[in-house]
Queue: 4 jobs
Job 1
Amino acid sequence: MGVLELRNVSLTLGGKPILNDLTVDFWEGHIHALIGPNGAGKSTLASTIMGLPGYTHHEGDILLDGESIKALTVDERARRGITLAWQEPARFEGLKVDRFIAAGAKDKSAAAVREALTRVGLDPDRYAKRAVDRTLSGGERKRIELASILAMRPRIVLMDEPDSGIDVEALNRIFDALSGFKERGATVIMITHSQEVLRHAEHAFLMCNGCVLDKGSIEKIDGYFADKCIPCDHENLPTDEEKTAVTA
Amino acid sequence: MSDAAVAQELLASLGEFGGHISGDDVAHLEVHGNEVVGAHLVPGLEVDVDSLDDGISAHIHLDRGARLAKPVHLCFGMLPETGLQRIVMDVEVEEGAAASVLAHCTFPNAVDITHRMDAEVRIAPGATYEYFERHLHGREGGVLVVPRTRVQLGEGARFKTEFELIKGQAGVIEFDYEVDSAADSLLDMVARIWGRGKDRIFIHETGRLNGENARAVLQTHIAVQDQALAEVYNTLTASAAGARGHVDCKEIVQGGAVAKAVPIVEVHHPRAHITHEAAIGSVDSKQLQTLMARGLGEERATDLIIDGLLA
């Protein structure tokens, strides 16, 4: 049994099925990757797990430690230990980096905030009193968001496109942070269509048109993805034969 | 109650904001109603105060080249629940002088108080004058605040002003600032206000960039909730070559509150340039969701976002 289980989750947005009868288990303390082409439903799945507005009317169930979280709001899910790092982090005009990190932190002390910033490779003396606004680059905001998640000490981290819009140095810091989550026993679910990011995971799920086509080792999924998904060779739902029964 | 005791009580009402008024090198002036209840001056600064029936008239003069190391602290206020306080201020900053003024206006028990400020400010060439006015009101919101200021900004001079009303209920604010800017001058005007209940907030900010290369930024950040109303009229005019300016108005609206922004930008010279942006709406949903995904409830997350906007 996984720490987080999706049972027959289907979701329709704007009349179009986005998630199709998904059943997936995510194991505690592991780094998982959800890989697939654009439009496969990866980000929708993350939003659904987080319970964001507009993504809560799904069929099926989501279980955390065996208990349904379907009726919980975003903040209630977060207080149970689930959080999300956005592909494009929000800008907060005027809100200082230290207050942003401390807002959801387990330990709200200045020392803990400094430690979180240091872990993502940002000098606290230079960044703690800056605003989380347009004066920061996309990479800096991504690292600050990650610092806020490290300080939160979540159990399950959903990371949507962690490599999107950042430079190599920032990406390396994000991979360092992944190790930090792993050390603390957190479960990480990375959404990506990058093979580089995929290689930092321990298990991978291949998504296509709202279904999980396959799961398994990084090598297996990476090979399939490179051969069959770039470019994608079908536009509609995968056939039953293409679907692989997903079991824990 | 003695003057000293009144001054003490006024300063105590500032809470966390009142702790920095100490030391012989810090100039300060405390005015309760129409009486000066405390004062201390430093070299280079002259303050003449006359008592009026309903307030005071103050002439503040900064000597040529005088540069005050520490901010001058002004504290205006009234402890009773009702009354009128009128502050007539004439400020003259001579050439090359520089000073910062922190003005606290405190009405902790207000039920029906009017606070009027009529200020004329002349900032001579090469001088710098910063004026930061923070209002601290009680929970009743029974204050009518009418700050009216006219500024003449000389060549190469700088004027920075901030008006902040975040703690307590605003009441009614009729804010009216006009600045005429000469060549190479710099104007930076900021208003930050949080309106609640039935507060009424009217902001009129006008900057006229009359001289070459004069620059200005007018910023208004307002949050309104409940049944509050905010109307913001920012006007920036550029009439000379190289004059540049920006108008920025952001308003967050919640509940049954109403916000309105009217930015007016006028350019009278082909080598002048003014930009403006205005954003009015509810709290940004992505900001809200980000904070909620860290475990903050919706109300706490909203307050933090508004705190940031008004910081």
Job 2
Amino acid sequence: MAPSVKRSELIISLGVLALGIFATVVAFRLPEGGGYARIGPNFMPKVVAGGLVVLGLWLLGEVFTGGWRASEPDDAVERGEHPFVASAFLWVTAGLFAQMVLIQYAGFVLAGTVMFACVARGFGSTRIVRDLVIGFVLGLLVFLFFVKFLNVGLPAGWLEPILGTAGT
Amino acid sequence: MSETLTALANGFGVALAPLNLLWGFIGVTLGTAVGVLPGVGPALTVAMLLPITVKLDPTGALIMFAGIYYGAMYGGSTTTILLNTPGESASIATALEGNKMAKRGRAGPALATSAIGSFVAGTIATILLTLLAPVVVEVALKFGPTEYFALMVFAFVTVAAVLGSSTVRGLTMLFLGLLLGLVGIDDQTGQMRFAFGVPELMDGIDVVVLAVGLFAVGEALYVAAYQSRQEEKLEHMSGSLWMSREDWRRSWPAWLRATAIGFPFGTIPAGGAEIPTFLSYALEKKLSKHPEEFGNGAIEGVAGPEAANNASSAGVLVPLLTLGIPTSATAAILLAAFQNYGIQPGPLLFQTQGALVWGLIASMYVGNILLLILNLPLIGLWVKVLKIPRPLLYAGILVFATLGAYSLHQSVIDLLTLYVFGLLGFMMRRWGFPVAPAVIGLILGPLAESQFRRALAISEGDPTVFLSSPISVTILAITAALLVVPLILRLVRRPKVESSA
């Protein structure tokens, strides 16, 4: 039986190799400037980049000689899990990006509330109102603890009239 | 010896100062509370709680961290026993028997033996740390850059290549961590490397963002995608919390044996607690008068691994404090916490910052006592924490994860980086790449590079300097053997494997 090549393993191996080659190119553009040591800031980058190239080739070698060694089964059920749920993955992602967009305008508490509800949705929660309320309360408690008690700056955003200009 | 006792006594003076005692108390409580959360291991707990300490003085902050470190370890074992989802590889052995005991209605004694065992092992291991640290410091003071470099290479290879299921995937993660460690300004020449003109990259990649991204965001994405539609089984706390006379008789020898196994394994760079917990489990199974109970909830099978886990986490602090070399992901993050205060652990630290180091060590004795007092009565509370529905739990974890990343520089770029590392963490979990080598590579890589260049600067570029010191030659030879011997063995065996396939 010819060894079957797994596409995911092939792509990741090529990715590691590509990263190594890219790092090599960048490393060779760094200046020498060795001083007494005769090696400069470009030496370690070359070693690390070269290492990644070798490891990429090594992974690639395993792909074509029967697949990666000691790897997890591809079938989620065999791993004791359920098949990939794309919507769950995307809801969590959406929550994190919503927070990135909102945090500078709406502030930490409101951005965190939106993220909290999105992530909970991703994990299968259908009680949106409950999630929003809990997310808001948690965000507010964390905000007050960090800003008032620990002096860590966090943006208040749209809630500034209520929370005051704390932090940044 | 008497010097050590004087230093330790002064350390207790620091650790028992009311404010420091308070920080220690907050540390163990938060560490336990966060460590109890399923899917949150000690490394993530320490990383997520790092920003809490930014405004404290170094001594207070590090005392709090020691508490978080021990608390997280303790909290993790509660989760393992009641939920059978080991948060980290070091808890797998505990899960084998602990969860079985809980299923048979003996959750109480399982939690008690793990709490008291952690206390006994933690305290003995801290005594050993107290005695051993000054000795290692004496030796380490004679070390030059070549010896340090050899030790760091040894740590890299054991963590990345020897432990874990695949040498090549471990090394890939190590080199990825090393590459990330190169990002930013080279501190010897001021040369900008791999920053591509992005201001946020010029400061380098923060270990908190990497660790929280890989552990928290990666874990959340993975669990959402592959496990969120499954039911979780939480064992009920029923029956007595107290251990019977028989339980005590079977537990205490296991605690002591496990401490003897766990502490030495922690001190050598062998990747923390995973190996000693399994060794202890195997030993207890072999020595037990009730081998038939193993697999059905034998108390020695909980007492041993839990004690070994705690003893080795105290052992890990020996190379961390005396040499500045982290040998587990958690220790790497602790090192980052030191660096945040401009403190570089190592032999000199014991001379220049004696009060801080000995205060820290003394606070570990105090922390162990606090944990014992705190946890036996509060087990009921931690069980309630475990009942938080998974959607709310992970949403909450991500609130803290993003808080930690954002509060570093108040920068959205850090949140984006966090998500990118989260994607990476998802892929690593799915395809079996270990996290610890990446974290250790990021934090230890720059230190290894600077020792390497310092050694060559002293020898004026002569690379044989690394072979001129007997210590460094020995360490490098062992390292090479660890890396090469398994490969040769595999090449020798390969024809048989292929013919049988």
Job 3
Amino acid sequence: MEIMTDKNSAVNIKPPKSMSPWAIARRKFIRNKLAMISLCFLVFVCIVSFLAPYITTHDITRINMGSFSLEPSSEHWLGTDKNGRDVFTRLLYGGRISLFIGLACTAFVIVTGTIIGSIAGYFGGTIDNLLMRFTDFVLTFPFLVFVIVLNAILQNKVSGVWVLIMVISGLSWGGVARIVRSKILAEKENEYVLAAISIGCSPFKVIIKHLLPNVLSTIIVQATILFASMIVAETGLSFLGFGVPSETPSWGNMLSFANEPDVLQDKPWIWIPPALAVTLTILSINFIGEGLKDALNPKSYR
Amino acid sequence: MLKYTLRRVLAMIPMLFLISIIVFSLAKLMPGDSLGGEIDPANTDPEYIEQMREKLGYNDPIYEQYFRWITNFVQGDFGKSTRYKIPANEIIMERLPNTIFLSLTSLIITYVLALAMGIYSGRKPYTLGDNTIAAANYIGLALPSFVAGVFAIYIFSFHLGWFPSNGSVDISVTEGTFEYWLSRFHHVLLPAFVLGLLNTASYTQFLRNDIIENSRKDYVRTARAKGTSESKIYNVHIFRNSVIPLVTFLGFDIVNLVGGAIITETIFTYPGIGQLFLTSVTNRDYSVLMTLTMMFSLLTLVGNLVADILYGIVDPRIRLD
């Protein structure tokens, strides 16, 4: 009899709703302290950079005759550079450019890579062969060499940061395309895809509604890794003098002042802030990436 | 394996041909031509410039120019550097030993450090030492090479005065003596360390995880059951299995060194081909620029090939053909 009552009560109590995979991932991520601290830091850096015009009142473009290379003081928190511009203000505006380029490149690379990878993986055959040979071809270009040459060609014709964004993303979508293709190849063998096709879904709909959501976790992890490497690419190129035009403040352009021995040796306040900003941003993105990888991996229990 | 290698090498030829077309078009698209770098346009008669252009073949159809360039190129005639007034291959050959020296030193530093730290971390995981190494690795991965280079010069050259901050050798020493080589080694150490930093971090992490994974496998349990000493298990049984995948990274090292050399050599004003490449872009020194771009592309192709072949050698289960 006891067993019977037990069964009855079990029917009456509503079974707790099981969590969706995304909810599990979110909970795992929130429990990861390092990733959460990094996320807070990154959000803080983004907000401060994008609200730069409302935070500081110094003029970034005007060359101030009276205040060349001033040491940090209460008026200029991080001192001024060789042209008398406030380093703190430039750091915020520079973050705006560097983060924007990083985000834009990541978006372009992810979109292009996903489109090409999913088309190649879904259709297979000749289309796959053609697209993948093209991808291989793009991947054989030494990245830095071709970015420098392309940017040198285009910089005089088109101005602004968009040239750099296009050049960087045009040369780096190959890796994402390969990863997405291999994931789609594995995923499309599942029976739900066959079911979707047999009820008459168009290939476009199958890819968007059925395949991509199952590949999304890989894409998200890739996007975080890419975001970090895109920021490194931009700052590195600007540091070498082949990135953003030199009058636009970016972390890389600010760092390039360190190429002058007297700045490097005696005026560390000019180059240490952008160096630290880049490193800490990359570090926090890496931690977020690790956290996401862990959270989205259903096999890891934490 | 030999058949596969040969097929891959042959497949590189059409790839290089396509790259050569792109390199040539890019060089043609660049503003100005190499004549502009050679003469002063303000002081020269425009008619003379036109004559020179005609004589050098700049007015020929673009495909004729391409074929002239590529025929000379495959025969080893890379053209003349407009900046240094000597053949491009001579100036490249002059700089190449410096870059090879830098790359080899950085590879040795990378592998020695990665092996030492990885083996220690893998053998004693989740201890204080392992966590310290892990923290150092995270910083190493996040530190872009140019930031690391700038900090290295600031700390080790300017403040501590241990290493010189630029050049490849002291001017005062005579070539060929023991002091000469000592000075070269002294100059290369800091840039090589900066160049090897990023790879060191990822290789250490890889080796550590591989050793931990291997230590849970059955063959290790068997070895323990037989009474093999712990140090022999780690230094012989596990080490052999864990170090093999690391070898396959050698191909990617070749690819990474191309980009790394450009940045590191610029920071340390080290006279290698990376720095030569940047100056050739700035000065529109086309013959040097095109030759170097082709060379870097070839290196990338070779690096990928080496990686694929090494994969096949260390893991016979991977069927290459």
Job 4
Amino acid sequence: MSSNLNTLPRSGSIRRSTSSALSRLGVSAALGGVLLATVSLVNAVVAATEVAAGNEAAVAALVAWSFGVATAALATTKLGVAIVLWGIVGRIRARVETMTSVLPRLINPSQESVPAGGTHVRTPFGPADVTRHPPTELAIHRASRLLWAPMLGMGAMAVYAGLVLSVIQSSTVATDATAARALGAWVQGIQFLGEGMLLGGISFLLGTILAGLRGGGAEVQAHLERPVHTLQMPLTAKLFIGLMALGVIVEMAQFGLYAYASTLAGDPSFAILATWLGPLREFGLGLLLSGIVLALATIARVLGFQFHRVTGLIGRPASNEVTS
Amino acid sequence: MTRTTVHRTDSGVSVSRTAPAPNILQHIGRLLWLPMLAMALMAFPVGLALGLSRAGLVADGADGAMVAALGHFGTAAMFIGFASVFAAISFAIARILGVFRSGGGGIQEAAGAEVHSLRMPAAGKAFVGLMLMAMMALVAAVIGHVIVGSGLASGGTALAVGEQWALWLEGVRRVATATYLLAISLGLTTIATVLGFQITRLGELPSETAR
């Protein structure tokens, strides 16, 4: 027989179509970002030609708005990634609903028991807690559910506000070089604060997915009236939280420093500050992206644990789980 | 193991009796996500340190060519980091897809049903292709920065030429980074597709198994 994609319950079908629409919207947004980045590439080619012609004012004007456009382009692709992740959050919920309705007809009669105070088991995916009832939601999961949307919203606003400032800066270069430098500092500071917030929002979306996997897995097991096995927080998850926090702090610090630099636009020290603030803001984004890698690795581990648990419930004895 | 392929209007599915192992790309993802992350975490501080050194040269009023050269080297280090971290994200996504493939198959096998596995969707193929293109472009930009930086440091490249190359390479880096992010969005779309398929398949299992 072949799978029939129309056999889902109604609520699942609604989530499926919404999730598919979000995936398409997210990829379209990311594609839009690539096209915007291509505009920036063309601009860079034109600016390089002006360098050869020795037209410094034109180069400065082109570079100014090119920076704004390029950062907005990368922010747009990140928004696209976030929209696709939002769709995945919906599918995780639909998966829990389906498991809750289907698994009672698949699992073996219960032979498991759990002491009143709970216990721990070792699994191939790390130690897991065993309890009678679903565990309470972790603070980081609650924060993730609450904060991903505001972070993405504020991030997008900051980046696009910076784009407008970059256009104003571009038109100021020829008339007032000092004012243009000050504006340039604001553009870089605010746009990279926005980029940091966007990556923070993506991190919180990944945290929301992890919350859905943890809470949903426990919910399914409790519904089956089986001991609730919950994977303890892996090291990758702890490092993810640390890197994300550090990355956001660095982006906030660079924003403050750029704001300070804007007051020194007419001073020789501006050039020194601007020289190291560029690498600092990129370092912050690097930390956030590294955190995202660890969040994805945690999702892979949690999923592996869940498949292992469900397979054990259906038929295979959980012989590789040793009570500690 | 008998393996046949059924053709459907909605998606291609591979059918087998036992759970499939992760495919080669997913296996590579499982092996390489951590080394790529480690490389990124080493490159970012190097890029930052080179930026700080360059600021020191600016403060000392050093030769413009040396300042420009260090700018190229610092950018190269930072973008080795970005190329690595985006590769790590892509490999981590591939690893998740591998877990879905073998885990979803394991549940079907345990239930005593035929194991249906989704064949790689178009989004998955585009994910791999775009990721490779973006990575090659970023690596090419990094190599370009090292060559131009070396030329500036040795005096073989004029300052204006170095500035031109900095602008061109910056444009290439931006397009490559955006392409990498597009690839990642396609990789995540593949995860959403696989999730949808597994939800459907799970709903079919009770009717296929006689317990």
